[in-house]
Amino acid sequence: MSRKNYVFTSESVSEGHPDKVSDRISDEIVDLFLKRAHESGEMDPWDVRVAAETLTTTNRVVIAGETRGPASITNDEIEAVARAAIKDIGYEQDGFHWKNSQVDVLLHGQSAHIAQGVDNAAENRATEGAGDQGIMFGYACKGNEALMPAPIYYSHLILEKLAAKRHSGELADLGPDSKSQVSVVYRDGKPVHASSIVVSHQHMNENHSSDDIREMIEPTVRDCLPDGWVTDETVWHVNPTGAFVIGGPDGDAGLTGRKIIVDTYGGAAPHGGGAFSGKDSTKVDRSAAYAARYLAKNIVAADLADWCTIQLSYAIGVARPLSIYVDTGGNTALEEKLEKAIDSVMDLTPTGIRKQLGLTNPIFARTAAYGHFGRAPEDDGGFSWERTDLVDAFKAAV
Question: 348-375 burial by CB neighbour count: b if 16+ within 10 A, else e?
């Protein structure tokens, strides 16, 4: 953003949103294949390939796509994984129930013509090719501990905290489906307060009014935002259309990969157009976007820039990126140094990314809701791209 004074808005959707239900099921399938490969010894996890797409609608789940994985995995197991995900999210409604919904599994083997561009005959896998062509972006900025744009960061946090209270029983009257939207006022380039807050939340009691829902959720919303961000002038819209009882896939069909802006930076940074969920890490749509975020976050964490956008581009079957572009707001000398430094700080071949970030581990289902970025890195390797362990390397390189 080049302007200093403006209002910027981002939205989030909860784990129970129909598109996110689809993303969760698709990512559970990725994890199933990777976990079985690790535990059974049937095949090397590096050789697992998954591209799973999920459609959810009224009491129906359709899973399609291509896989290459352990032969012991059956359609019954895939169906069980889907049902477990729906149950964990909290759907036990007449129109969408983890136990009663029909689940169709239409997965088939990966195309040999795609596989040949990715597979590497060399034992060290040094030339494993990218799983597709495309452009990927990463972004980070100052303003909060996650180094994320404030509107999307707080939109996610609101829904994540409300979901935790729903699961705990503290807000048991809430349903799984919800959306949030926060409009943030920037002054001199810094976020200072919320001009409006929108929350639409499914509820289980038909008699609840919009005012009832606001009374339930407002304390959590306020707790999620920094002190002073909610003012007397902040405009609230809570369930502005009225009753929201029919939700999730029963209210609206869901598809994997439809919430790519929610998944990334809320529109505050460019997006290459490729979805993440349901894909193994040979697909650079996912892995290179994670790498770009990792690099951008470390550059900002190193105090080399207040914000940073990185673009990477790839060709299918080609290991190294075709281009590396860095934008920090016009400091050309720094940007050129960073572009050169990136090449020495991290191996951006698919193999290099997968090794450095541990992307052959079953860590993907947890990314399906509340954003792939801005989350805390976890001990088992989850959200490894949120580490800031490249700070010293970047400082030394520039």
Answer: bbbbbbbebbebbbbbbbbbbbbbbbbb
